[in-house]
Amino acid sequence: MIEIALHVLLLLVMPPFLLGVINKTKAWFGGRKGVPFLQVYYDIFKLFRKGMVFSVTTTWIFRVGPLVTITVLLIAGLLIPMGSFNAPISFTGDLILFAYLFGLSRFFTTAAALDTGSSFEGMGAAREVTFACFSEPALFFAFLVLAKISGTLSLTPMLHGPLNEYSAIVAAPLVLIAIGVFIVLLAESCRIPVDDPNTHLELTMIHEVMVLDHSGPLFGVITYASSIKLFVLSALLLHIMLPFQLDQVWLNWILFVVEMVGIAVIIGVTESVMARLQLLHIPYLLISALLFCAFGFILLIR
Amino acid sequence: MLSIFLVFGAIFLFCISGLQAYLFSPQSQTGQKITVVLMMLGAFAGISGVALVIASPDAVSMNIPWTLPWSRFSVKIDHLGCVFLLPVFIVPALGSIYAIGYWNQKLHPENGQRLGAFFGLLAGSMALLVIAHDSVLFMIAWEVMAISAFFAATVEDDSLQVRHAGLVYLIATHIGTMFLLAMFALWRYTTGSFELNPMQSDSSAVAGTLFILAVIGFGFKAGLMPLHVWLPGAHANAPSHVSAVMSAVMLKMGIYGIVRMTSLFPSVELWWGGMLVIIGAVTGIAGIAFAIGQQDIKRILAYSSIENIGIILLGLGCALVGKYYGSVSIMAIALGGTLLHVWNHSIFKSLLFMNAGAVIHAVHSRDIEMMGGLGKRMPLTMLLFVTGAVAICALPPLNGFISEWLIYIGFFQTLDVGNTRSFTAIPLGVVALAAIGPLAIACFVKMLGTVFLGNERSSGSGHAHDPSLSMLIPMSALVALCLFIGLFPIIPLNIIRNAVFVWIGQSALELPLSMTISLGWISWISAALLLSAAGLLLLFKNKLWRKTDKKIETWSCGYSAPTRKMQYSGSSFGDSIVKLLRFMLQPSDHEPKNSLYFPKKSSFKTGVPDTVLDKLVLPVFHLAGHYFPMVRVFQRGHIHMYVLYILIIVLVLFVLGR
Amino acid sequence: MAYLLIFFPILIAAAATFVKSNRMRPVLLPIAAVPHCVLTYMVVFNSKLAFTANWLTLDPPGKIVLLLVSTLFLFCSFYAVPYLRYRSERENRIFVVCLLSFLGAMSLVTWAHHLGLMWVAIEATTLVTAPLIYFNHTRLCIEAMWKFLLIGSVGIALALLGTFFIAYSSLHAGLGATLTYESLVQNAPLLSKIWLHAAFILLLVGYGTKMGLAPMHTWKPDAYGESPGLVGAIFAGATTSCAFLAFLRIYHICVAAGEFAYISKLLLFMGFFSMATAALFMIRQRDLKRMLAYSSIEHMGILIIGLGIGVPALYGTLLHVITNGLTKGVLFLSVGNIHRAFGSKNTDQVHGALRLLPLSGALFLAGFLAITGSPPFGPFVSEFTIITGIFGSRHFFSGALFLILLCVVFIGMGVTVLNAVQGNTPVEVKEKVTFRDSIQTGAPVVALMVIVLVLGIYIPAPLRDLINEAVKYLGGQ
Amino acid sequence: MTNVLNALLVIILMLNLFTLGTSRIQSIIRTVAIQGILIGLLPLVAHEHVGWAAILASVVAIAVKGFNAVHDVSHALRDAQIKREVEPLIGLLPSIILGALATVFALLFTSQMPLANENLSKLIVPSSIATILVGFILLTTRFKALTQVIGYLILENGIFIFGVLLMEAMPMVIEMGVLLDLFVGIFVSCIIISKINQSFSTMDTRILSSLKE
Asked: Which of B44, B377, C379, C476 is the residue whose CA sits 20 to 30 A from B182?
C-alpha cells in the first residue's frame, strides 16, 4: 500500500525535476549557471494560470489531444516498476499495453497537430509517426530479450529479471538492448541528437513543432506529459542498465531516485557533447537502435 | 435441427431480398424498403440460429442425398462456422440499411435493383459457404459468392475504370477457383469423399500439397500479398456498402477456407506455420505501407484490409506452430486472437468503408487531397471515423487492441516451447506486429488529418454535411460493437473459445487462467482510460469551449498570408515513410522541371501504384496477349492448308501410335 | 419407333416444300419438333421401345444424345418461328426443309447400330447442313459453305475408310466382314489389332472433323460465324454431339478389344491439342460467333480427354455432352439476338449489350459463365466430375494442364464477353436499332438457361440412372 | 481373274498419275470418268462368284462415278469457261513425282499390314491407299475449285477400291447409301461451285480466304 502511494507520488511529482536536472547539466557544460532545478515546475504553474487561444481551424481533436496524452502516460507510469519495487498494476502481457498506450498518445498528439492546418505542425507530425516506425520494433526486440531471460510476459517480473540472474550469457544481450533502448528514449523524449527541445527553428523540430499552436493550460499539460514520458522511459531503461538493489528496502527508494537523476545527467551529458543530427540521418540512428536490440535477441537465442 | 432451418431461412431471405425489388418499378423505393425488412428478418433468423448452436455443446449437421455425382447435400454448423457466420449475418443487414441513404433507388433507377439483387445473393451465398460440409456444395457457394460480388461491384459499368477493376477481379478470383478445384479433386483422391471430415490417413506429402493449394486458392480471395492484385481496384470502385461487405466479410471467407482446411489435418508440419507467418508479415507490412502511399480514400482502406489479413495470417501461423508443438495454450491464444481479429476487422472495416461512403457522398470525390476541414461540416461522421481509426490501429481501449494483444501473447509464448534452432525465427512475428502498429497509426492519422482536419482544400467540400439517419444508424451500431468488445473482451472470447477447440480438435477446456485475469485488467484499464479522459474533459470544459468573439487564425510562424493551399497535404505527410520504403513501393514522382530564373507554371504529381499489378501482372498479360495470337498464321483461310492439316494429323497419329 | 422418329421430320420437310407462304412455313418446325420430342421422351424412359431392328437400336449413349438433340431442336424451333418471321425478306423454303431433314438424319445417327449406316447418316447431316450456312446469301456464306463441305467431306471420307478398315479387321480375324455394332463389340478381342489401330486413327480424324477437333476444326469458325445463330446452336449443340456419339461407338469397340492403353494416349493428345488451340485462338478474339466456335472446339477437346481418362471420367463426359450442348444453345441464340440488334457480331461495334438488350445480354453473360464451368450451372458439375476423374486416375500433370487451359479460355473469353456486354451502347447503334428483346425470341433461350441452371444444382434421378446405365454399357463397372 | 484385277488396278494407278500430269481440266475430268468406270468394274472381277449384289453395285458405281459425277463437273466447267489449271501450288512434274512417291509409300505401308484372304490380289489395298493419297495431292496443290472436287472424287474412288474387299460385308442398302451420298455430295458441291462462279466470277479458291483469323 505504502509502495503504491510512493509510486504514484514519485510519478506525479518527480518528472519535471528530471528536465530541470538535464537543463542544469547542459548549462554546466556550457559553462553557464543555468536555470534553477525547479524551473519547469514554475513554467507549468504559470501556464496553468494563463488563458487559451484557439485557432478557428481547430476542432475538438485539438483540445482533447493533450488530455488523452497525459491520461495515457500516467496509466503507462502505473505499469512500470520503480527500481526493485513492483508496479501497482502488473499482469501477463501488460508490456504490450504499455507500448500501445504510447501509440495512443502518438495518435492524438499528431492528430491534434494536423488539426491546426499549419504545414509546420504537419511536418512535425509526419516525422513523429515516421520515427516511431523504428523505435517501436526496437522496443519490442528489447521486450523479446527480457521475456526470454525472465520467462514471463509481465513488466514487473520481466524487468526484475536482470536483477535476479545477471549471468554472463545474458550480459551481452542486456548491454546491447540497453544501448538500443537508450537511443529510443532519446528519440521518444525528443532529445539531441534526434530533436532539439529548445531551438526555435521550427523546421528542425519534431515534438516542439507539433505543439506550436497550443497555449496556456493545454501547453502546460503537454510539457508535463512529455516530462512524464521521459520519466517512464528512464524508469524502464533503469532496470536494464543498472539492475541493482540494496538489502534495506527504504534505501531502494533513495537508490531509485538517485539512479533516475543519474540517467538524467547522462542524457544531459549526451545532449551537450553531441550535435543534432541532420534530419535525413535520424532514421539511420534509429535503425541502428533497432539493430542493437535485434543483435541482442539473436545473441540470446542462438 | 431448428438452428439449421433458421440459418436456411436466413439464407433464403437474403437471396430473395433483392430479387423481389424487380416486381416494382425502377423508380419506386418500395422494393428497397422491403429489401431492408427481409435482410433484417434474415439476419435475425440467422443470428438466432447461430445462437442456438453456440448455446449447445456440439455441432448440428444435416446430410441428405444429392443427385450431383458423388456428392451429398451435407451441411454442418459447428462453433468454428458460427464465428464466421455472425459477420455474414450482421454486416450485410447493416449495409442494406445504409444503402437506403447511400444508393437510393430513386436516384439510381438504372442499376439500383441489380445492386440490391446481387448484394443479397452475395450475403446468402456466403452464409451457405460457411455451413457447407461438402466440397461440391462449398464450391458452388464459393463461386456464386465470387460472381455476385463481381456484379455488385461493377454496377457502374459505364465507367472504364470500373470495368477494368471488375475484369481484374474476375480473372483473379477464377484463377483462385482453379486452385481450389485442384485441391478438392486431390482431397477426394486422398480421402475418398468430398465430405470435409477430418483426414484420417496421415499422408504428409499430399497434405503439404493440399495445404499449399489451399493457401494459394483461398489466398486469392483473402488477398495475400502477391495475390492481392484485384483487391484495391475492386474495393475502390464498388459502391461503399458493397466494399464494406467485400472487405469485411468476403475476404474472411478466404480466411475461413484456410482455417477450415488446416483444422482437418491430423498433424501439421513446422514449415506450414512458418510459411504463414512469413506471408502474414509481408502482407501486413507491405499492405499498410501501400496504404500510406494512396490518395484514394477507398484504396487506403482496401490496402489496410490487406494489412489486417496479414495480421490474421500471423495469428493463424502462430497457432499452426503451436499445433506442431502440441501446445494448447499457444493454439488457444493465437487462434483466439485470430478469430477475434476476424470479427474486429469486419466491424471496424465496414464502419470505415461506410464512413468513407458518407464522405464521398458529401464531396463527390474519392481523392483525399480534394478534401479537408470536413470535421467542422460533418462532426458526427468525424467522431465515428476517429473511433474506427483508433480501433483499427489496435489502440486501447477499443476492440482492435484485444485481438492483436492475444496474437502478441501467442508469439511471445513461442519463445519458451521447443528450443530447436529452426524455431528461433517464429517469435519475430512480434516484431512484424510491432512494425505494423506505428505504420497503421501513420496511415490513419494521415487519413484523419487530410480528410477531416485543417481547412477544406477544394470548394467541393463546401456544402458537405452529415449523412442521413439511415447511414448514421449502421455506423453507430458498429461503433457500439467496437466499444463493447473493447471493454468486455471476455464475452466474445467465450464464444470464440469453443470455435478454437473445434480447430484444435480437443474437448472444451478453459483459456489459460492468466489470460482471463489479464483481460479483466485490460478492460478495467480501458474503462479507467475513458473515464479519466472524459473527467479531464469535463474539468476543462468551460475553459476549452469558451465563446470568443474574435476569429484567430492558426499561427503560421510569422508568415502573414497563409492560404489553405499551404496546408500539409496527405501525400507529403506520407512522403517521409514512402521515401524510406521506396524499394518496395516504387512511388511514381513526376518532378516539375523549373527553369532557373523565370520558372514557368509547373505541376508536381506523385502516387504509389500497385507494384505487383502494374509492374508485374499487367505487363505479363500484355505480352501474352501480344504473342499468343501469333498462332493465327496457321489459319489464314487457305483451304489447301486446311486439307493438308488433316493429312498431317493422320500421319502424326500413326507415328504416335507406334 | 425408330422409323417414326426418323421419317416423321422428313415427312414434314416434304410437306414444307409445298407450303407457299414464307411466313407460315416456319410454323412447321415446332409442328415437327413437339411430337418428335414427346416420342423421344417416351423412347428414352421406356426401354421396351428402344429396339426396332438389328441395325436400329437405341442404346443408352444413343438415348442421351437423342434426348439432347430433340430437346435442343425443340427450343430452337420455337425460336426459329419469330426469327424467320423477322427475317421474312429471305426465302426460307430450303432452310426449313433442310432443318427438318437434318433432325431426321440426326435421329438416324442416334439409332444406327451398323457402322456403315451410321456413316451414311453422318454424311447426310453434312450434306443437309451445308445449305443452312448459306441462309444469308453473302459471299462469305459461300466461302464458309465451301470450306465446310470440302473439309467435312474429306474428313467423312477418311471415316468411311476407317469403317472399312474395321470391317476388314474382322474379316482378317476370320469372322467374316461385318459392321454390325453388337457383333463387333462381342468379338472385339479377336479383331486384328493393326487394322483396328489404323481404323481407330482414321475414324478419330474423320469423326473428329465433324466434331471439330483441332487441327481439323478449320471449317468451324467460318461456318459458325457466317450462319445464323439458330443454325450455330444446332451445329454446336446437336451435330457435334452426334459426331461424338459416332466416335463413342468406335471407342467402345476399341475398349472392348482391350486396346484402352493404346487409344488413351492418342485421345489425350488430341484432346489437349484441341483445348490448347481453342484457348490460343480465343485470346483477343473480337468476333463473338467465332469465339463461340472456338469454345465449342475446346469442349469437344474436353469430351475427348474425358474418353481418354476412361471410366473414372465417363460419367462426367456423358453429362458434359448434355450440359455443353444446351449451354451452347443458349449462347448462340442470345448472340444471334445481339447480332440482329447491333447489326454486327464484332466487339469493335458491340458494346453495352446489357443496356440495349437486357434479356439477351444477361443470357449471354450467364451462358458465358456457365460454359466456362462456373457453378451453379450444369457444365460445372460435368467438368468438375471430369477433373476429379483425372486426378482420381493419378493423371496429376494432365489435371494441372487441364485447369490451366480452362483458365486461359476463361480469360480470353471473359475479356471479349465483358467487352461486348458491359459499357455504353454506341450512339449510332442506339438510334437505328430495330430489333428488341421480345417474349418470342427470349422465352426459348430463358427456358434453355433454366434447364442448364437446374442441371447445375439438381440432376433428375432418371437422367442420372440413364447416364449410369450408359457408363455401365460402355464398360464401366 | 486376278490378272485382270491387277491389270485394272495398274491402269487405275497410271490414271492417277495422269491426272496429276495434265493441266487441262477437261482431260482431267475425262481421266476421272475412265477411272470411275474401271473402278465400277472391280466388283465383277474381284470375286469368283459374281452375285447380283456385285452387279448392282458395279452398275450404280459406274453410273455415279463414271457418268453422273463427271457430267455435273463438266457442266459446272462449261459455266465457268476455264480451260486449264494455271499455276498450281507445285508444278506438274513435281506433282507427278509426288504421286509416284505416294504410290511407293502406299506399297511400303500396306506391306506391313497383314492381309486377310490371300487368293485376292495383293494390289488392292496399296492401290486404294495410293489413289487416296493422289486425291489428297490434288486437293492440296490445285487452286481451282473444280480440280479440288475432282480430287475429292479420286479420294472416294480410292476408298471404293478398298470397299471391293468387303463386298459381302456391306449390305446392299449401305452400299447404295454410300453411293447416294457421293452422288448428292458432288451435286451440292457443283452447285456451290457455280455459286462461287457467279458471285466471285472466278473459280480460284485462293480468293476464298477472307474468312480467317
From this structure: C476
